[in-house]
Write the structure tokens for this entry.
Amino acid sequence: MSSLNNMEIHTAVFDLLHNAGQRYTDKRRVIVDILIQAGKPMLITDILLQAKNVPQSTLYRNLLVLEESKAVVRVVTNAESGCYELAEHLMGHHHHMVCAQCGSVSDVLVPEHLEHELEKALAKVARREGFSIDRHQLDLIGRCKNCT
Amino acid sequence: MSSLNNMEIHTAVFDLLHNAGQRYTDKRRVIVDILIQAGKPMLITDILLQAKNVPQSTLYRNLLVLEESKAVVRVVTNAESGCYELAEHLMGHHHHMVCAQCGSVSDVLVPEHLEHELEKALAKVARREGFSIDRHQLDLIGRCKNCT
DNA sequence: ATGAGTGCAAAGGCTTTGCATTAGG
DNA sequence: CCTAATGCAAAGCCTTTGCACTCAT
């Protein structure tokens, strides 16, 4: 499985929330729709701009619920506000190219065999350190096509 | 070059600051000493605890100066406070294990050959997309030994 | 002297929380 | 009905900024 269509994503999110004893409310659906449409990590500030009828507190609380239900993940970044995207099992595993100039983020894939080898090596290192890996995140930082 | 001894690091930091038109003051030396001793990324809150005679504002300002001078880097994490470590040319190239619960970050190495193979693959993908890579960053996200 | 560095306190900005209201099952 | 979810406002917390003081050149 690599990625799902929009309807399948909503169904999957519904199941995830349901299993966590949570409801798939309108606001939550709006948030997920925005993340689907973006197709890449979004800053909370940008989500707020697009979801004008979703108050801050509701957005923050729902992002936490969606994260705990494994529907979204918080992307590690040093941006001024939090950054979220759909979970990997909904989006497919991928990495990010981050433009240091314009801040744009695009998805990128590395060869399957390398990804596999990398995961094995990371698992080994983590085990040695007593660290349990939830996921890994690989970012390329540089200049995008438009900022050269 | 992989890493330097303590004295060499101080000398290198002095040069970096000097080249940037900055002084290597006592407070800055204290901060660098703490980072050297830690040998891993440190949260600002933890640096403050260890450097009791360094006020918050001084710490924040000096970390910025040290970062601009390329002596330290700000590590990207979702921790509650900022996270810094010595720059790669002082510490050697490595990656990070980020605890999603407590926010702690520790350094990790992947096998040399894999690192090399990864860089080749990333260069290839980036070239195809017209993206010029400045650096890459690989984070393991999960639970640290203490948060299991 | 003269500008960089420092320190205290206050201001800013993102995030969380309290509490009353609304809505979904 | 009854609890979860929502919305507004206030509180919290990390970080930045203003301004006066100190130190090194």
Notes: The helical segments of chain B are 6-19, 26-38, 44-50, 56-68, 88-91, 112-129.
